[in-house]
Amino acid sequence: AGGGEDAGGCQPPAPGGAAAPPAAPAAPAAPAAPAPAPVAPAAASAEDAPASQAEKLARQAPEPEVEAEKMEHCRAKLRAAPDLNPSQRAAVEATLGRRCTVIQGPPGTGKTTTAVHALHSWVNLGIRPILATADGNIAVDNIAEGLAKRGVKVVRVGRPEKVQACLEALTLDAQLRARQELQRREEADEAQRKRLDVLSKISVAELLARLRERHAGAASGGDAVKDSAPAAAAAELGVAGELQAMLDSAARRELVAEQEAEAFEEAAQRAERSEADLAAESAAKRRAAFRAEQQLRVQVLQEADVVCTQMISAGGGVLAPLGPFQGMLIDEVGQATELTTIVPIVQRGCQRLVLAGDHCQLPPTVQSREAESRGLSVSLFGRLVGQGVTAFFLDTQFRSHPKLAEFSAEAIYDGKLASGIGAEARQLLSGFQWPSGQVPVAFVESGREARESAEGESRLNEQEADRLLDVLEGVLDAGGCDVSDAGVVTPYMAQVRLLRQKWRERCAARAKAAKAAKEKAEKKRKKQQGDAPAPSASEVNGAPQWWRTPRDLEIASVDHFQGREKELIVFSSVRNNGGGKVGFLSDWRRLNVMLTRARRGLIVIGNAWTLRHDPMWKKWLAWCGRHQVVVDRQELHRAVKRALREPGLGRGPKELLKGLFDLEQAPRQPKPFKALLRSLSADEGPSPGPEDLRAAWAAFAAAREALEAEAAAWEAEAEEWAAAAAEEEAAAEAEPSEVPAPARKKRRRPSLGEEADAENGAGEQAAAPAASKRRAKGEPSAEPAATAASPAPARRKKRQRAAEQSAEDAEAESAAEAPTARRKRSCSRRRKPSA
């Protein structure tokens, strides 16, 4: 049997079979302890172990029994169903011959599909009436939609505003209105048909009498009349046709006139009667109309194969005329209290009962601690499983990427939950730099500075909210998914309100910026193209324009998202404090629900130090560490600081390291970081190693190329300045009186010629011994290339004169100008690539 559930969470079933139902305690017990760690569910099998008393009762055959031929035909259809896996098929077949069937469906295992097949099988067996109910409207709507697609007559009972718009035609009110409209049309058509029949009969009788008279006159007219009889008959037929058309038109006009006369007569009679008579008649009509409506409502319900309603409405008087139900299915029973579930069972009665749910997801919400301590938060699902009733476990999930379901399958379902969908069917979403290309999960460290704050009894975290929306905007801008396919989840309602407010503000700001860009582009287009057709909005602003529909993004709590799914889930944990308090995040079932909502991507933003104080969160963070999906900027910062303190690290790698850290492209682990620095300082290439080490080498190479290109640009600019200074010096020597010294100082720009000459000289001195060594070894000399690369002697003299002039000018400059020149020279030296 699967794991049971008490007031706090899942517990293993008591050994030794069934226990007596718990009696109500005489005094309040102590508050319930926090939810313990989950116990893995066992695969259901009715013959695995000796059955308990509760299991024996559940196995009893329901009454009345179904014919064996029908039962075998239904089982054959189930075996041929292409959308059922073995565990689902076993659960559905169990519902055909058991009084009580318990189905445990982990997230994404097709629990709704299994429920729809069970109800459809009952309909095929002739079991009626049937009630399908759940604690929430979403689960009820999903069942009703699935049954309607299979051609089952469904009536959805409940408030129309709580029902999805696509299912409005299935509601009881909509079907009642349609039936009333049909009755009114039928009554009106019948009345009009009767009146037309009466008028038609009278008119035809008169016409026949006229024709008889004319025929009698023609008979007394002799042979001449007989000779003209055919022509006369034809004329009479034409006249008869015209008369009939006139009579039809007259009949319709007479009918309209008669109806108007009746209306005037009724209005006159109403005017003559007293107000009391009118009130009495109106009340009587209302009572008659109400009785007729109630009868019609009952008729609609009785003609339905399955009635779907919320659990809180199942015990009401709307369903009372139907009597006891032959079959009842309760979905998401783990979310409902035991008392709430018992109401429809006792009030409506049933011969077959199916309970579908998962006690490893969120339990019923009970506000009173005293009620919780008295066991009122226990679900009927957990009670029956704890008493030894077999739970049929659905063992294959089809919702999420296999890696998204991996942790829950291992830590919560003891490895018994498999994935029926491959990774290729759930591609990574673009717009976010996933730490691993194989795992669509990321834990983004918010940092110690992103502290939580209180709002009443709730909590919020503003910096986490900003970080979350930044991540989400990146995905939406890149077209990774539609805004309606993304979901923002957080455990606290204060954070929900904050995120909704910030989201509206961001959408308004983006819409304003897009409008300004469009106007600017339109002005530019008119200036360049004149009256050419204007481009579309997507061409101007770039697709997609998600900010136009801010309400399409669903931002809600974890409890609200149970039973839902999205392509992308971005979660804000909120809790970030010095005491390591996680609040009700300590409920492992809430973590299970959060991890299993996403289909293609999950991004969690939080503070690892705080979350590690909870055992289940600590396990999940360890799983993230093993798969290298942690994005921690602070760890990057610490790794860079440690690496910069490494002995023997040259100036070049340090500069590259700083630039690389600014680009936020550094590796995530400090050990590969240090290994890469050692290889760089030894002037060696990367050795084959982990993926992040190769990525780090690629990032370093890109940063080094960028710095080298920038240094080359500085050298080219320095040469231009030196040439300009030499030309000015030559002009000054040719005409010294026309170019005074102060003017030359003002026109002068900081020259790097002196540094360039010094470096060229050092390079030539260093190159001479190397060239002599190469000649001694017989190697080809590099002097021609060096000569070609070196400047001409005349140009070198100009540079020397420019350098001398620069030295003289530097001595004459004021103290205020000296720091600026020193800063520029140090900047130029820092930009040059090291040897």
Can you tell me about this structure?
With 835 residues, this protein is an alpha/beta fold. Among the domains are: 53-165 and 304-394, Rossmann fold (3-Layer(aba) Sandwich); 405-520 and 546-631, Rossmann fold (3-Layer(aba) Sandwich), CATH 3.40.50.300. The protein is 55% helix and 9% strand. The chain has a seven-stranded parallel sheet, sandwiched between helices. Helix 13 (402-411) links the parallel strand 10 (396-397) and strand 11. The radius of gyration is 44 Å and the shape is extended. Mean pLDDT is 73; it is low at 1-48, 663-669, 682-690, 737-792 and 814-835.
CATH topology of the domain at 53-165 and 304-394: Rossmann fold
The gross shape turns out to be extended
Unreliable residue runs: 1-48, 663-669, 682-690, 737-792, 814-835
Can you name the CATH architecture of the domain at 53-165 and 304-394?
A: 3-Layer(aba) Sandwich
Beta-strand residue fraction: 5-15%
Largest sheet: 7 strands, parallel
Q: Tally the helices.
A: 29
- Rounded to the nearest angstrom, the distance between the terminal CA atoms is 72 Å
The level-1 CATH class of the domain at 53-165 and 304-394:
Alpha Beta
Quaternary arrangement of the chains shown?
Answer: single chain
Determine the CATH superfamily of the domain at 53-165 and 304-394. Answer: P-loop containing nucleotide triphosphate hydrolases
Mean of residue pLDDT values: 73
Number of strands: 19
| Rg for CA atoms | 44 Å
Range of helix content:
40-55%
Q: Based on helices, strands and strand pairing, what is the structural class?
A: alpha/beta
Strand order of the largest sheet: 5-6-4-7-8-3-9
